[in-house]
Amino acid sequence: MTSIMLIDDHPLAVNGIGAWLTGTGKYKIAGTAGTLDKASKLIEDSSLMPEIVILDISLGIENGLDFIPRLKNICEKRKLPMPGILVCSMYEDPFLIKQAMESGADAYVPKSADSDEILKAIGEILNGNTYINEKYQITEPEHIWNNLTRRENEIVSLLKRNFSTAQISKNLFISIRTVENHLSNIYEKTGVNKKDELINL
Predict the structure, then answer these.
(1) 147 and 127: one domain?
(2) Which of 101, 90, 38, 92 is nearest to 65 (CA)?
């Protein structure tokens, strides 16, 4: 059976997806974690590396995508192959999906998707392919986002996860004034005038 690790901070989601996958008779759950540190420790302590990791973007205030480079480092140290990464999140925003794939995910499926799509994504990963439903592909010209700096991309990502300016300041360890300055630059580069317009891009 294919071994799968679930990284999500919502117990209902973990238990529901885990029970459903196990019930197919094709998959076994190798472990679950709700924070980046617990996920890293689980991977480091596991005798075997899972074949698939199903990862949420929002782990409280943490960004689940930050686990991907940690996982790569652990795999390199243990000289084990990198598991396939399926990001399964509530967000259906093309910017966040693009960010997930650029971070190293192999597939992206929103939590609103039906079970067949999750199975399809897992199957594509196991076959060495990537998967995103075509309706979530970015339709805006890529240069709109490519002009942003790394920090500006981080701020847009947090905005699209409904973080306030104060929360962004705390999360990134920068002042509110600095966040506001970055936002001014982002508005100029993307051609919008306020947060709502940016979030809906």
Answers:
(1) no
(2) 101
- First-to-final CA distance of the chain: 41
Domain holding 65, by residue range, is: 2-136
CB-CB contact of 103 with 71 (8 Å): no
Same structural domain, 157 and 130: no
Q: Is the pLDDT of residue 33 over 90?
A: yes
Q: Which residue has the higher pLDDT, 100 or 13?
A: 100
Cα-Cα-Cα-Cα dihedral of 99, 12, 21, 89, to 10°? -10
User: pLDDT tens, 10-21?
Assistant: 888 888 889 999
**Together in a domain, 115 and 164:** no
SS3 111: coil
